[in-house]
Amino acid sequence: MIIASEGPTHPMRFGRQLHSAANGHLLPVINPSTEQEIGSVPAGGAADVASAVERAEEGGRSWTALSWRARADLLGELAVRLADSAEELARLDTTDSGNPISGMRYDAMRAGEELRYFAGLGGEAKGDSIPWTADQFGLTFREPYGVVGRITAFNHPLLYTVGKSAAPLIVGNSVILKPSEHTSLSSLRFAEIAADLLPDGVLNVVTGTGTEAGAALVEHPRVHRLAFTGGVPTGRAILRAAAEGIKHVSLELGGKNPMIVFPDVDVDAAVRAAVTGMNLRRSSGQSCQSTSRILVHESIAGKFIEALVALVETLRVGDPHRDDVEMGPISFATHYERVMNYIEIGKSEGATLATGGTRPAGLDVGYFIAPTVFTDVDPQMRIANEEIFGPVMSVLTWNDYDEMLQLANGVEYGLTANVWTRDFTAAHRTAQRLEAGMVWINGETSRPAGVPFGGFKHSGIGKEGGLSEVLGYTREKSVIVNLV
Question: Could you give all domains of the chain from N- to C-terminal order, each with its CATH number?
Answer without folding.
Answer: 12-253+459-479 (3.40.605.10), 258-449 (3.40.309.10)
